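Hi R.,

Here's the chain you asked about this morning:
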Amino acid sequence: MSKESSRRVDTTASTFIDPGADTREGYAIAKKSRTLARSVVGNETVEDRIRQRCSIAVGDFAMAGLMRFCNDPVPATVAALRARAPIITDIRMVRTGIQKKGHGSEVLCALDHGNEIAREQEITRSSAGLIALHDRIPGSIVVIGNAPSALIALCGMIRDAGVRPAVVIGTPVGFVNAAESKELLRTIDIPSISNEGTRGGTPVAVAAVNECITLFIEGA
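And here is the predicted structure, written out as tokens:
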């Protein structure tokens, strides 16, 4: 079973960077939200940084307690960003939400690939897209915020075909296979960020990867 990491870093409360806040008002709102999240969630580790941002994204500090980190995923994500590894998403909403400034990684969406595979195998388009992107997945950052079927397909590719992304951020939402897909991810020996239960979704996945991008910009 994968172990949750607890890497402590300097997370000085007086400093704040949000590459997505490009106006004075936007920065002020983001800073106020982060200050509150630090006081409620804590601010001792890089995982706390992710917990803060995911809680802000859904407007509920209960999300902090649901987040799970296996096999040091935050350093793995930062290293992949440093290597300009591609970021592969399950849906376009996730791709749209990912911060594009401050890194050189290409952001791809599974829905833009694999249509023929989806028709032939009668599987979801997001799953088919990941199959079509098989050769791009090794060393990549895979971000799945919506589709449990895509996360299950990816886990199968990792487990059975030896495909090894650098890290998987998997937070699909819903009542059909969402919780189960994330439980499956946590059984695989690969760096991952996920959450317990049926909650999750695009905002959580985007928040997690964007905070890793912020850490990369900060030089973590």
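One quick note: Strands lie at 67-70, 87-89, 107-109, 141-144, 167-170, 192-195.

Cheers,
M.
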